[in-house]
Structures are given as C-alpha cells and as structure tokens.
Amino acid sequence: MSGGASTIVMGQAGGGVASVAVVVGVVVCLVALIALAFIGRFFGLWLQALLAGHPVGLFELIEMWLRRIDPRMVVLTYLQARKAGIEVSPAALKAHALAGGDVPGLVNTLVAAKREGLILGFDDAAAAELAGVDPLDQARLPTAAAD
Fold first, then answer.
1. What are the pLDDT digits (tens) for 85-107?
2. Could you give the CA distance from residue 62 to residue 139 in angstroms, rounded to a whole number?
3. Could you give the CA distance from residue 77 to residue 80 in angstroms, rounded to a whole number?
4. 78 CB-near residues (< 8 Å, 6+ apart)
5. 125: Cβ–Cβ under 8 A, 6 or more apart, which residues?
6. Chain centroid to CA 139: how far?
C-alpha cells in the first residue's frame, strides 16, 4: 500500500509542475497579445508614412503618445508638408506641439506661403505662431515694404 501512496504523491507533484507551466504560458500569451495590440495601434501610421516615402520610426510614434502628443496629427501634417515640398522633420513638428503650437495650422500656413511664393521658414513661422503673430502676415511684410 505504501508503494501506491508514493505513486499518487508523485502524480500530484507532476500535475503541479504542468499547472505552473500552463499558467506561465497563458501569462506570456496575454503579455504578447497586449504588446501586439499596443504596437498595432501605431502600425497603420507607421505603414502610411513608409508607403508615402517619408518613414517615421515606430518607437518615435510610441514616444509621441507617451508625451501626450497625437501621433496621427503629427504624421498626417508631416506627410502634408512633405507632399507640398516643405522640408520639415517629425521631430520639429513634435517640438512645436510640445511648445503648445498649432501644428496643423502652422503647416497650412507654410503651404499657403509657398503657394503665394513667399519665403517662410519653419523656424520663423513656428516662432511667430507661438508669439501669437500670424506668420503669413509677417512673411508678407518685406514684400509689401519693397513695393
């Protein structure tokens, strides 16, 4: 009888190890699913920028989200600016957003200035916009003074 009792105890010990392995496996799968969902949230933006020919790093998108900057807004305005031929980086747009600036408004102003043939750099426009001055009006001043 004692031989049978040791077999039962050993069987229970083996079942405990298997249970721990199942729990660990389930936890690892849950963590992987959460990580995939988190990265998947930014994958579409990353792919859109990549296919547009102006890639933005996946970790840069996550960094924007962690800093409470809307990554979608930054990427879409970045692509709009690049499509219009305006040289600007996602980092510059991110810095302007962190400073409290209106990133889409600034890019729209730069596009309008380019269409009008005005010379308006990103840094000058961003500084004017943060100071509460209309960058487009400021870009028009030298043109009006020359006439």
1. 999 999 999 999 999 999 999 99
2. 35
3. 5
4. 49, 54, 56, 88, 89, 90, 93
5. 106, 109, 110, 113, 135, 139
6. 30
